[in-house]
Write a structure and sequence with these properties.
This protein is α/β, with parallel strands linked by helices. 28% of the residues lie in helices and 26% in strands. The protein has 6 helices and 14 strands. 47% of the residues are buried. Bound molecules: ribulose-5-phosphate. Ribulose-5-phosphate binds next to helix 2 and helix 4.
């Protein structure tokens, strides 16, 4: 499969749902960025939208197109959001955040009346937790927060840059990548348990949030809803 074609096909389909005048959550990552460029390229007198970016990186990208932008706290509710994902289960639950933007992505996703997830086929899993679950934590006492996280049955590894420096999120937090040897049996329950740990800012588990998942393939798309 040509992954680039697959991502493009998913992004192209997603932007069809965006109408003139809408406020649109702009996701982060390589697939979401294709959608941002497609929306930017479509801007005209008859197609104006207001974007709510989920990261500094996406904000910069949208600014280049001259898109009207607002901050996350500026609106309680937005029409639609388009974002990528790292894993998608058959019940449309997701793991997100390997791009490091999970906290803002979740806030924007929650505000969206429609959250469209765009992925290629490689992101589909039977059970979440095939790869790591990113968990964003405060920097203070992060080691002990990680030990608490591990009590939920995973191994937590601090995310670092290629240089070896600790990765710092847009919100000035750290991220632990949590490996669950048998996957995550009950994502909803795990999300609540992790969020109850002092110092955990948010998790990459997006449960009951996606309203549509567009799976891009090399020459076609499939929509789950
Ligand atoms: C960023 C994310 C991304 O949407 C996710 O990592 C998928 O990225 P890509 O489309 O590059 O595979 O959650 O925090």
């Amino acid at each position: 499969m040509n992954q680039e074609f697959a991502k493009k096909n998913a992004a192209k389909e997603a932007v069809k749902f965006v109408e003139h005048g809408m406020t649109v959550g702009l996701g982060t990552g390589s697939t979401a960025s294709i959608a941002v460029d497609l929306l930017g390229n479509k801007l005209s007198e008859n197609f104006q939208i207001t974007g709510m970016p989920t990261s500094i990186e996406t904000k910069k990208q949208a600014e280049k197109w001259g898109m009207d932008l607002i901050g996350i706290e500026d609106r309680d509710s937005i029409d639609i959001a388009i974002d990528g994902a790292d894993e998608v289960s058959p019940s449309l639950d997701l793991i997100k955040g390997l791009g490091g933007a999970l906290l803002r992505e979740k806030k924007v996703g929650r505000k969206a009346k429609e959250l469209i997830i765009i992925v290629d086929e490689t992101k589909i899993v039977e059970r979440l937790g095939v790869g790591p679950l990113p968990v964003e934590v405060g920097t203070e006492n992060h080691d002990s927060i990680a030990r608490e996280i591990e009590k939920q049955g995973c191994q937590a590894k601090l995310r670092t840059e290629e240089s070896g420096d600790v990765f710092v999120t847009d919100n000035k937090n750290y991220i632990y990548h949590c490996h669950f040897p048998e996957g995550i049996k009950n994502p909803e329950e795990m999300d609540v348990r992790l969020l109850n740990i002092d110092g955990v800012k948010d998790t990459g588990l997006f449960v009951n949030m996606a309203t549509k998942v567009i799976i891009g393939k090399e020459k076609s798309i499939e929509i789950w809803e």
